[in-house]
Fold each of these.
Amino acid sequence: MNEEAADHGRWRHAPTTAVCCLTVVFFAPLLAGRTFSMVGPHMYAQYPWIAMVAPDDRVRGLGYPQTDHAETMYPLSVFATSAVRAGDLPLWLPFSFGGIPALELGASGLLYPPRLLAMLVLEPIRQHDLLLFVHLLAAGVGMALLLAEWGADGFGATVGGLTWELSGHNAFWLTLEHMAIAAAWLPLALLAATRAVRRQSLAWAAAAGAGIGMSLLGGNLHYVLLSILIVAGGGAWVAGRELIGRGGRTRPRRYLEIAAAALVVGSALGAACWLPLLPAVSDVNRRPASLDQQVADAVPWRVIVGGATALGTDPYPEGKLPDWSHLAYAGLPGLALAAVAAFSRNGPGVRIAQVSCGAGLAMALGWRPLLVVMRAIVPFFGTFHPHEGLYVYVFGVAALAGLGLTRARGWLADRPHGARWANSAASLLTVGQAGQLILFGWNINPQHPAEAAWLFPSTPLVEALQASIGDGRMLPVRWHLPGVWTPPVLAGKTPGAFGLRSGSGYESVIPRRTAMFWAAVEAGQVPPEAPAGGFKTDFWHDRLPFGLMEKASVKLLAVPPGIRPLDVSGADPGREGWLRPLYRGGDGWVYEDVRALPRALVVPAVRWMSDDAAVLRAMAGPDHDARAEVLVVGSGSPETGSVPASDAPTTSANIVHDRLSAVEVQTTGGPGILVLNDSWGPGWKAFVDGVEAPVLRVNYAFRGVRLRAGSHAVHFVYRPFWLLLGLAVSASTLTLLTVGLILRVRWGTGYRSR
């Protein structure tokens, strides 16, 4: 017995050590000055860089289908890093779609504490690398510890940890940091929940809640909700077994206290995510799919089987990279080992893994009864895609693989003369699984040197935009060649990386009116409804509604070389003299619309409209003069009455202070409505000469403030109540948890020393 205990102590850290070493092997390209990123490869697919970069064998991943890192996450990181270092929390993103709430819709992950700390000391690409390394390592180590808690031996814990860490799901989404964050906290939270139940510990319950709260702040709401289901279901299963096993010696009330502690801590720590989201979600563009639509979106059996059984060790040719099927990949040894435990009845971990595996697979396959239940119990489940169930499936496979190896090794060791072969066979399986997963992750992901030359460097076109934009807005315009792919210009959020206010962007979810307005600009006409899913714009060169664009202060157009922008009516504004070229180069051309409105102006009259649709139609029509009248939904009142244009004196409005969440405008003349052509939001406050005034939503999606005659200083400040309250609750909870952890460690150390 003593020898067994000594052997256990000698090897108890072996799984975590092995996972750490193999994680370093996987991230070896980082040590060579490279990065897992789509930014470099995407420079070959968009202006202004496509005309400037030469072929380079060091850049891998051309044609990679997942461009979110290049088009939204990296530019957002550049923007947020600049803001934080300037002492300005990025509450509002002014550079996309005329301005959007950067933190309130639960998708940015900018409030994740490790990310905020990394912003202070690391450049954006190294923040990306560090977050990936730390969180995938935590995913592997957390799963190894969880499996050890569930009874896996050292080999099983190692294989299970690596399978979860480098599974096809996590490898496919490797370039997206929030996926790694969700993958890290799931096994850690489930480990804490298991220990909370087994040890009757409120401290471990708080740790489980902290894991969920940190996941929420990481910004991947769909996968966090799936993680909550696994943690809650797993904890309940362990509690049920404990109640039965203890024969009534434990009060059921204690388990309710444990669940309540986890719920309170998780909710409080994640308050900055969910608290502002709940009031905002009723007015966003994203709409839930119907049950039939979700069933139709299911992943076919043959696709899952093909991805799950792929070797994954051969490099993929450029432009022919893995598709959704590879989300189910867990390595062939891992899949075989999972089959060993799939029909076992031993231990609570096996049951949790079996249910996770089965439920995740059923969701991916679009099994209607399960989707009905999920739509009833999971918030926002109508916005989920069935393939997201493969996250749950792969988690179950990884756990089963670890438990299956433990079972197989134990069976072999019990055979005559089998003990000498058990460790050798387990070692070979571990090495084979690790090698296949590492090669798979390397082969399917883009890489390039982590050098400034491959991280959207400035170009003459960008410099021309920065020099000329003033207080206006730019629009990246794409060449329209029906049936033929053409490179975009400054795709997605890329303008924000250069501090360029743009009407373009790329968002998973945004306010509905903001989406509707820019969808009208994109289509050249008012669409019947706002885009239902993620919103990414393409403004085509031959269908531009210049009248509507000018009313939104679109001053500059960035276009591919040689392209002449045309009005949706077919008119050529260049020939008519009000669209003049500012820059022409190999990286693109820049035009200036001399008729564009300034971002701030005082308008003398108000036209009251019946509803939002009428306002947008009038805005898009030729009869509305945005310099003469403001369009507002409602009816006239003494507070915001009309001012006849003929009686209005000469007015001026100048932006004298322009920060992310604060704008100061100096005005003269009036009376009238000060229009600030930035997106309206309920969190915006206005102060006229130090006195708070209502911020009107004018011209469908923009801000306005009523002014009396005279000179005024108007301050717009962004103070979203629910977000600020959530930030206060999250920060206070994090502080209390940190202090509690420090005190617990100190007390524990002092007790052991005595």
Note: The longest strand covers residues 652-659.
Amino acid sequence: QNGGTFESALAGRTFEPDPPILTPRISGIVDLDNGAATYKLAVLKSVFLNEAYATRHFFNYETPIPGIGHCITTYQDDGNPPPSFSGEPLVVELYDTLEQNSNHFWEMLDPDNRVSLLVKSLDPVSGGSEIRIVNKFEHQ
């Protein structure tokens, strides 16, 4: 909003300072200004769980595919310590409603590790949005 780019906004950030895990930071942005709803995802993480080394991975999607989305998770699995996400974003199926999407992704999460989930639906024509938050402690 200050005239900078997504990448420049993340340039001064790295992973969370929570050793020994060094939790990766994941981010996303959607550009509705061009009428095509382009989007970008990013993961900022440590290299080999070493606080001295940070890496930033950016993924740009110029033409959305109807019914398809991309997902970055914080961790690959529940190892000890949990390994950071690696590789390209996961390709995921998207559904017609916010409720269908939030229910689908909530059920995909490991019940022992899921805490909360936020799903946001954007209307590229009107620019309107709707948010649904699912919380482990309110979803029992």
Note: The radius of gyration is 16 Å.
Amino acid sequence: MRFSIKLSNVLFCWIIFTALVFPGQHAAAKGPRTLEVHSVFPKGLIFLNESLHHLSTVVETLSQGKLKLYFRGVNEVVSGDELFHAVKTGKIDAAWSWTGYNCDKIPVCELIASMPFGLKAEYSMLWMWNGGGLEILQKGFDNHNIIVMPTHIVISEAAGWYQKEINTIADFKGLRIRIAGIGGEVLSHFGAIPSMIPVEKIFNAIASGQLDALEFTIPDVDQSFGFEKFARYYYFPGWHQPSSWNALMINKKIWNTLSEHERNILTYAARINSSWSLAMSYQRQMSALEMFKSQGVEIRRFSDDILNQLLQVSRKSLKKKSAANALLKQAHQSQVNFMKTVKCWNNLQQAPSQFVMPGDCGNKK
């Protein structure tokens, strides 16, 4: 009996010792930690679905299988317009959404998601990760019990699909257009009738004849929707949104239950996926445009005169919004200061365009 008691004491001490010295081994026995992430987009969208899969793979690889992301499409559990509130209140662990969908609650999101004539994607990513952008964005989410993590950079979008030609600024008058962000306000100045229709309701809006034009995203992703059946003219450039961000939104209480190691994994995975999304974006767009052309779509570009008038109104709109919101003003000034430095460096070290490696896109229109 005495021996068995001593042995049990030894075993008890050994269990405590190994739990303290080798905590990871015991944690592993519990199985992987899984965060359920609800997307604002339908499953199966070209590129966006790939991005979610890539992000999930990076997280699982970095954690050696101990942390996983499980994605659900829009309306599987929560509708797109309910995602923010669901994360904030803890109804769901996390969501993956376009940052611009939150601008009514967090005004600075509007600037980061769709600043007309703003930062190109590569500069937006540099500003976000190394220029103070993430810190500013997180300030906007702090009062909503949410940790935000930009994970996917969107390059300059198309200006949109139009059922009629846009030859002058006057052609926007009376145009019913689905367009996101500040760009819609700018077009309304010229008589357009903008609306921010959620992605899952776009098809119904088209079918019911509510729209004369719409913009969604880049050509590669637009393929998933069959917009070439809706409109003949596909306009560029994406003046209203030279870059944008999709981001993870994680409930803060859930975030606080993660270990420091798990938080670091998510942070690094967000940066890795951002770089991946940029690297994958450019080459894919021309093949998408060729497909659209084969379907009878005409690829057009707004005239310089139209773009200049859009620019002037955009500047006035940004000035007004900056005066109305301190954090948005801080973000705008931060981007301006960042680009001053970038432009000074580029002016010094970049060769003039005539000395750059040649490449003819073959589109003279």
Note: The two ends are 95 Å apart (CA to CA).
